[in-house]
Specification:
Blueprint (H helix, E strand, L loop, with lengths): L9 E7 L3 H13 L5 E4 L8 H4 L11 H4 L15 H14 L6 E2 L2 E9 L4 E8 L4 E12 L23 E3 L14 E5 L3 H10 L5 E6 L5 E4 L4 H9 L2 H25 L1 H16 L2 H7 L12 E4 L2 H7 L3 E5 L2 E5 L2 E4 L4 E3 L2 E4 L12 E4 L2 E3 L6 E2 L3 E2 L5 E3 L8 H22 L3 E4 L8 E2 L6 H5 L6 E2 L11 H9 L7 E4 L7 H6 L2
Parallel strand pairs: 1-2, 1-6, 2-3, 4-17, 6-21, 7-16, 8-9, 8-16, 9-12, 10-11
Antiparallel strand pairs: 4-5, 5-6, 13-14, 14-15, 17-18, 19-20, 22-25, 23-24
Helix pairs in contact: 1-11, 5-10, 6-7, 7-8, 8-9, 11-13
Organism: Mumia zhuanghuii
Family: Belongs to the FAD-binding monooxygenase family.
InterPro entries: FAD-binding_MO (IPR051820), FAD/NAD-bd_sf (IPR036188), Flavin_mOase-like (IPR020946)
């Protein structure tokens, strides 16, 4: 891919990250505020973010593509659950067609950002290329669209005996392109979306695949195609059909989540019934597919076409629910003394949380710790001017939230452009009871709770993980509640203000 680079290092808006969030932010910005200049900086060498990073077998979306794709660019494929390469191509095509690539510079990692109140500007330090050459950007606004986990360092559970293992050890985040697992015994450690994707993808060529989990997850079989959605798209124009299917699937996903939270016992029983029908064994389901927690206490995992259940039913894969003692020469020894023999072990043990792509922030030279801030509408940090961040939902497709955030940021930027103010800062009055912004019991969320901005129980400082409530509150948000607007001239010394008059 060519190394497109913006001509200027001084822009109105600097967007950090060229994945789903960054492309969506850039599109909304040039759609709604075409008079503003912007640049996109991306630490990786290509478009895609997560979908460029993960290249393991079977990598795919964990939700339907109609809600994952952008509302402004229809998905034209037939499948509802699609592979990572197709998503990556979709993102690159979107960026190219919208002219976003022309504003994007790759191999450019943001190291730090410092705000000057007198100048009403961010000075952003970046490291460029493999050699890490230092350069700077200046921006009136910085939009961090870099996700919420560490691309360079996955979670390490600290397994004992790794050096004793004589086979091949792989982490999905760094999958080697030349790995050949054909005819080999494979153990996949984990029970989340990555493990549930890998097991059926590896099973056809491996001698056998074992999914080794400490705790079961809820797994829901979902069709790869959406017959109703495809029928809708045949009778409506592309954009209208796409939005209709997107709305349908959003309502269904929202309804499933609400049912799980309000009727956990009934939904757990329903998931168990489906798993038993798919696997053909109550014993296997009760031991390996029945979690000790309620549905959606942790993320619900999707099995397209029931491929995981099919692999277990056919005997090409199996599941072990046990604790690990240590790695040994020929595999993994469990706490009960058994050894799972393996030629290849995949440690699908999860992610490490990281905010703002690892960049540090300061305001007028004072360091900012995001965990000591409150999140204004899950979009800005209290006490930090002219900066936004973008996260997606945990219980719905990422884009459902990221597009909502992009549109809110554009509203704020539009007011800045028209009002005569040049600075807007979220200000929290008082110290209400708080919780981490991402309120879910998943392992990587728990491990990173101490890094997260805080959320309160009421808007504008809440994020409900409820797309209906969030959309109502965000799309109609008054921009005075929780925000303080000002001009840099109000903060300059009198002599300097007079000199510039």
């Amino acid at each position: 891919m060519p190394d497109h680079a913006p001509d200027k290092r001084s822009v109105d808006v600097l967007i950090v990250g060229a994945g789903l969030s960054g492309i969506g932010m850039a599109y909304r910005l040039q759609e709604r505020l075409p008079h503003l200049s912007y640049a996109v900086v991306e630490a990786r060498e290509a478009i895609g973010g997560t979908w460029d990073l993960f290249r393991y077998p079977g990598v795919r979306s964990d939700s339907d593509i109609f809600t994952l794709s952008f509302p402004f660019r229809p998905w034209r494929g037939d499948d509802a659950i699609v592979g990572g390469a197709d998503i990556r191509d979709y993102l690159e095509d979107t960026a190219r067609e919208a002219g976003i690539l022309e504003h994007t510079r790759f191999s450019t990692k943001v190291v730090s950002a410092d705000w000057s109140s007198q100048e009403a500007r961010w000075t952003v330090r970046v490291a460029v290329g493999a050699e890490g050459r230092e350069e700077t950007y200046e921006a009136r606004w910085v939009s961090f669209c870099s996700g919420y986990y560490d691309y360079d360092t996955p979670y390490d559970p600290g397994f004992a005996g790794l050096d004793d293992f004589q086979g091949t050890l792989v982490h999905p985040q760094f999958w080697p392109a030349d790995l050949d697992h054909s005819g080999k015994k494979v153990v996949v450690i984990g029970s989340g979306a990555t493990a549930i994707t890998l097991v059926p993808a590896l099973a056809p060529d491996a001698a056998h695949v074992t999914m080794l989990q400490r705790t079961p997850s809820y797994v829901l079989a979902q069709p790869r195609k959406d017959p109703i959605g495809n029928a809708i798209r045949k009778v409506l124009p592309p954009r209208g059909g796409h939005l209709a299917v997107r709305t349908k699937n959003t309502v269904l996903q929202w309804g499933l989540y609400q049912a799980c939270r309000r009727l956990p016992d009934q939904m757990a029983a329903l998931f168990r019934k489906g798993a038993v029908a798919a696997v053909g064994s109550e014993e296997i389901v009760d031991e390996h597919f029945t979690p000790p927690y309620a549905p959606w206490d942790q993320r619900l995992c999707i099995s397209p076409g029931g491929d995981l259940f099919e692999a277990v039913r056919d005997g090409r894969a199996s599941v072990e629910t046990a604790l690990i003692d240590r790695f040994v020469e020929n595999g993994v020894r469990l706490a009960d003394g058994r050894v799972l023999e393996a030629d290849v072990v995949v440690t699908a043990t999860g992610l490490s949380l990281q905010l703002l792509g690892g960049a540090t922030l300061s305001v007028d030279g004072e360091p900012v710790d995001p965990s000591q801030t409150y999140a204004y509408r899950a979009t800005m940090l209290s006490g930090v001017p002219n900066l936004s961040f973008c996260i997606g939902y945990i219980n719905l497709s990422w884009t459902m939230r990221s597009d909502m955030t992009a549109r809110l940021v554009c509203r704020i930027l539009d007011r800045l452009s028209r009002s005569g103010a040049d600075t807007v800062t979220p200000v929290m009055d008082g110290t209400p009871a708080s919780r981490p912004l991402f309120d879910m019991d998943s392992g990587y969320i728990r491990r990173g709770a101490h890094l997260q901005p805080r959320a309160a129980g009421t808007y504008p400082w809440a994020m409900k993980q409820n797309v209906v409530v969030d959309a109502w509150q965000t799309n109609r948000a008054g921009l005075d509640e929780g925000l303080v607007w000002s001009a840099s001239r109000d903060r300059r010394p009198a002599s300097r203000a007079a000199a510039g008059a």
